[in-house]
From TrEMBL, chains A, B, C, D, E, F:
Superkingdom of source: Eukaryota
Compartment(s) where it occurs, according to its Swiss-Prot or TrEMBL record: Peroxisome
Keywords of the record: Acetylation, Fatty acid metabolism, Isomerase, Lipid metabolism, Peroxisome, Virulence
A biological process term (GO) from this entry: fatty acid beta-oxidation
Any one annotated GO CC term: peroxisome
Protein's UniProt name: ClpP/crotonase
Species for this entry: Periconia macrospinosa
Pathway(s) annotated for this protein in UniProt: Mycotoxin biosynthesis; Lipid metabolism; fatty acid beta-oxidation
Family listed: Belongs to the enoyl-CoA hydratase/isomerase family.
GO MF term set: delta(3,5)-delta(2,4)-dienoyl-CoA isomerase activity
Length: 287, 287, 287, 287, 287, 287
């Protein structure tokens, strides 16, 4: 491992492995394979902590997110834990509907914020899907920037099957991130399984690989490529693309101009141009 | 027909057949086949009435919309009626440009509201295209949630051919619902015909079937599948997906949290989990 | 050349050829082929002047934009000129960071406005890509309405390679104009080349032709087709589609109603209907 | 009464008097004085019907809204009826929280739409307050355009006193329509009474008169003055001011330009200028 | 002190006193009087922690915020600490402008989030101004809900005097919260002192009292009054008023309907109505 | 006059005097007093040119705008010229309603852009009203930042009197810039005159002076005060206040953070702090 991305302190979080497979690249692995990587509460809390740290770590410029084991990226919420949690979150039976509603709202927002921590992470995140990728798998991948998949991946937006309108991101992000609203509505309203090929066709993932191993390699390759670029340019590009997704073009342009008024005062431009003339890879200083 | 979706009163509206082919499923058929199902004013008024009723009918959880006859879903506006209507709507020749403009605005908004009644219908609507599907056919399908087509379907956004910028929904919804703005601009600016295959490629429809009959069966299959799910979850999913289409992700997430603060207090969650454990289909109470 | 689109005065702008190959059709050619049509500052200033004039010229109803020579639509910014410009734009070394930021913001907005002049041009613009199409090539094409490409086109969003988050339109428009956010993020964050086929798959272009010549013919064909339609309807269709891209559906519908309250008072509707009955092409008066 | 504003058919709605005290002026009086004009459901349904009719009546150019009797404009919701209604609206005790929530949402939106009918009425509405003006009195007045008050008026935003966050308009409109957010929060969170003088100071009303009679005369005077102006200009002014309240300045300007592109083609401009030269009141044709 | 608002654990935060002067009322006092309550970094971090805890404490329904000592609510940032902080936040001299910009952005957002914690606190906050109230005093008060002042208060938006555009809330909130944009611009662009009377006239505060002591009593009186109301209704009222400040009326109404669909299922409505009939104060259960 | 604000070239524009009465202060005087400073087209074109130049002139940090002569700031549009202009702008009688609408829209936007040039001017503008201040006087003042008035000023929003909904800014800006929507609606719908005192009460102006001369002195005093402050801070403060007027608080905060990430890298902060310690006025370098 290159000194450049030896983190100052160990990343030690239950149900996650965090490693540094290449210079400036972090690898976050969901690690509860005996339960198909299904999520219990501590997991989304840890996920949020990990990505919040990586966001400002100068040793990290790109991240991949994968699931441990052969069978699943994640099967989604641990249903048993979730249905108990739903009751707990509402509070006791003595509460009226309004008080239950308020408790639920607080908990949903807390849960959403954990997933959104991945989107807010300043560094790009490449999600690598394989195997069972249901429910929260989709929420989580949509909060990442780039999605690739093994061809054995099966996806589903499962929530209507358990009586819930998905609320940690799928319904908010899907209509913005992939093509064909007709397809979006179909998979969300029927909860049917869909294949890696369908995911590719409709743009949920941008490439397929024959196996999990190759998909992870592809994810790593993309992350390494990003990590070689100017960290100032990469951070700005992620930030502005997310801003533009949610604003009109005029707003996007003005915001970009203000953003770049500070960000163009970067040595990276000179470093990049010079190394281009000298036919070598540029070396950018830490962010 | 199951007692569960025998509507309380008959749906008796000129130019439309409304039937109930399966439990909780309604079938609305545009019925003016001798004129290629072209629309005259009474038709969009009736369309609005039908979908407004279905929206809150406890006997209905999913709807399919089709066109009668072999030749056309609909050829769009009845041009002869429409060009007369345009004159009528402006008012007499003695009016000045401003007064004509005000009359036209009132009429356009009234017309738009009729088509938007399909979008506002709380229950998902599956549109099944076949044959000639021009002009209003596209406006109408875009107000539905899921679109499937027979492979003989030919589409066109015809309005520039008659000197009009389409104003009952196509121009507002197309840039949000399908991929490739370049394709959207091309079909809207040239009024050229495009095929079912192009519609599939660009995500206007999410599946093709070889014949009208098979397309209708597919639409019915999807509607039945939706009708088996928790009606609370389905209604919320449609509602939030439409909200998210028009808002940024942060707004979407907050709205979802508020929505679900009430909607998670549903017996459907328990019913779904229990039936899952018991390996049987859940039965959800009426909405 | 038909008298109808002989412009009143010559279009004489350095690095651009402007011709009128068909009735109501203008052809703007970027003309610096020895430098792969790379842009220096005078070029975007001229581009803006040309499209601002074409916008209100009654002799023009559709425009195609191409690059001279066999090798490139445009290789993007002239890097040498650009890196000098960046220094100039910041102002001298005696300035503090804030004053440099203010200078940069002014210059970025001025540059953006030049590219946006293509989007604001009232008449539709068809962009024909071929060969090297990097950086500004993408910004520029996205400000056009319809994009077609020769199959030899190679695209790249190059900015992260020179330490910059793209700021003249790509990051603001891409998330709105093409499908698959995963693909958008990948090409913007890695700066990798992508092929004409990928551009087609993801909807950046709506058709491919085997050669530059055929692609230009296709662009011309589309422009001619548009130029035959009602200019009132075409102008409104472009305007409303752009508005709708940036607003929710409700806003889009209301705006359309107000727009059409004036625009339906057009003789084009009658002209179109009459010529339809008489089985001949309609002739529309100038706009 | 001038022939110009004899309505075609009588306005006959329970709990309301509708008269036409001057040319082009309508007077809507809430008429349940023995109950302090407190609202039961039929009243807001009728209110909506009345204003929807007045909106497009060519005999009406301005409207005043008052309450019958000496004691109250309106005491707000009829609490007894409202608390029964709240139970009814939720549906029976056998319903779960989600189903109750859905029923409540439908009913709130229906109720809101009735009040918003006053805002959507194309013609300006002058609200004249006197005496007890609680709860719905504020919701209703805020949906009007101009508010005047008798000096004996006492206002209150009462909802927190009965366990409810006000939901038919006060909380949505107050932060936009009057000054001092601190005052807005105070009256809404404490439900305290506030005087006509406070209402004047904070801009809720724009003038005070010593008695109900004089306040009604003032309202009528304003309505008559408006009714003498160009109906095209008045309708546009109300419409654009409401639009601008909810949009940024850039959006407001563009919308105004599109609106006026149709609306300046009015004979009223010539009529107004000519009558100005001839030193007489202009006579504008009906809208 | 009533058992109802004995907090579970002590609130022990440097530079702040937190007490519970009445049932369900918390009192937060800024406590660095020897430095005119000027803020150093630990103070805004503590402020955020305090209000985040109070937000969900069932023992608290309303809060007052005051400054210790006779001379100042707060003189704003501790300038010495702040100018050192500014250098620290940028990072070392070896950083380029872009890296400094990124560091500054992270720090500003962190600082803003601390102040916004007061706005996000679910319970209403009454700010009581006295004496010197400069810079951060205004930012902070604007994040509260209701503002009252002693008549000796002097205000200033000081930032242009130290070369900064205010960035922790004043510039974002002032144009929305008080009347007269001309006054807002004047005080922000000139940094001139303005009096308690001007603050009252322009709605920055909603009442004045002759002394600090009386102003605190007034603040406490308002907080007690709020604490007696239904906590469900109060929380909803604050939440929706803040939402409405930032959204158009249509959006506000729809959001309110969804919010209340859960929140009207409250026992508080029945409790309030019943106690009204029984002429006694209602007792509401904890939130 | 100090060398610091001797402009490089003379400002020589018909109907305007541009002088430099104090260091870094420009004075723009509308100069057509024999016609009550009524505007003809060349005037708004010149106005735009002047403010666009002042916007980036390093010799200017604040501007006052006044009207020549004793009788009027401006009586608004020159009605005779305007009514001829309206006809010209529509184009000849042979045009249909749609073509006229398009011509009108182009002209309105061009006119609006000229007035908005004052708002877009990077430097603050103080408007000094006196005497007749009708129609365009209000549009123009609202595009300025601070408004003061002589007590003899009479205002009117005159447009409904000539059959027009005001379209160069009053209707878009008034609902955002002053308190009391009821007052806004009243003056816009009735076109009645209102006094300087009413303008003060409702926040249209922030101070009154007994005579034109004293009002101009007050405007000059404010402008000088602003011109002494950090030009980086002043420019940012104007820019962000305008942004915040049109966006929600969350958006405003994020934008401010990005803006200040560049703008806090300013020597002005150090210059201001140092001069504070040394008890002297800071001298800031040019922008």
């Amino acid at each position: 491992m290159a000194p450049n991305n030896t983190p100052e302190e160990k990343y030690d979080y239950e149900y996650f492995n965090v490693t540094f497979p290449a210079e400036y690249v972090a690898h976050v692995e969901i690690n509860r394979p005996d339960k198909l990587n299904a999520f219990v509460e501590v997991m989304w809390l840890n996920l949020s902590k990990i990505f919040t740290r990586l966001s400002t770590s100068p040793s990290v410029r790109a991240i991949i997110l994968t699931g441990a084991g052969d069978r699943a990226f994640t099967a989604g919420l641990d249903v048993k834990a979730a249905s108990q949690g739903l009751l707990t979150q509402q509070g006791g039976a003595e509460l009226d509907g309004a008080r239950k509603a308020n408790n639920l709202r607080r908990h949903i927002i807390e849960f959403q914020d954990c997933i959104t921590a991945v989107e807010k992470c300043e560094k790009p995140v490449v999600c690598v899907y394989h195997g069972v990728s249901y429910g929260l798998a989709v929420d989580l991948g949509l909060a990442c920037d780039i999605r690739v998949a093994a061809s054995d991946t099966t996806f589903a937006v499962k929530e209507v099957d358990i009586g819930i309108a998905a609320d940690v991101g799928t319904l908010s992000r899907l209509p913005k991130l992939i093509s064909s609203n007709s397809f979006v509505k179909e998979i969300c309203l029927t909860a049917r399984l869909f294949s890696a090929n369908e995911a590719l066709t409709h743009g949920l993932v941008s490439s397929l690989k024959p196996s999990k191993q190759e998909a992870v390699q592809e994810g790593l390759k993309i992350a390494k490529l990003i990590a070689e670029k100017s960290p100032v340019a990469v951070l700005g590009t992620k930030h502005i693309l997310n801003y533009s997704r949610d604003h009109g073009v005029d707003e996007g342009l003005k915001y970009t101009a203000v953003w770049n008024s500070g960000m163009l005062q970067s040595r990276d431009v000179g470093d990049a141009v010079l190394s281009g003339l000298e036919k070598r890879k540029p070396v950018f200083s830490k962010l």
